[in-house]
Amino acid sequence: MRRIVLLLVILTMSVIAVTGIALTVFLAIYPDTDPPPNLTLKTTPDSIARGAYLANHVSVCVDCHSHRNWAKFSGPVKPGTEGQGGEKFGAGGGSIGVVYSPNITSEHLGHWTDGEIARAITSGISRNGTALSPVMPYSGYNHLAEEDLYAI
User: What is the rounded average pLDDT of the residues 94-110?
Assistant: First the structure.
């Protein structure tokens, strides 16, 4: 009788654990979020210059979304790879997996709406509604001034 009770307890705990893990994974992959805002931003030479300044020097989007030369001090961006993605994150050090930064050039993001890009930057939600890697610091970018977000 004790064996049956012990087996039932183990089985119940296993089902609860598997359900909890599955729910956590599901919510991580498909977060509950609002649809992207309906934005159509006007680009001006000033807004493009401001966005380039912010992406290269303040929010440093280009640092992660480019190839870096780690043979040099501080791993400067390799010229010609700006925004093309491919930087490897998570190699070793007890990380769960490896993530490569995606291409954020206008050629790649040209089919995204302005609202989808803004949502990705501030909420970490991809165009198709899946979560971006936690490496993306969207929780910090969520506090960008609206004009800075739109410039980027």
Answer: 84
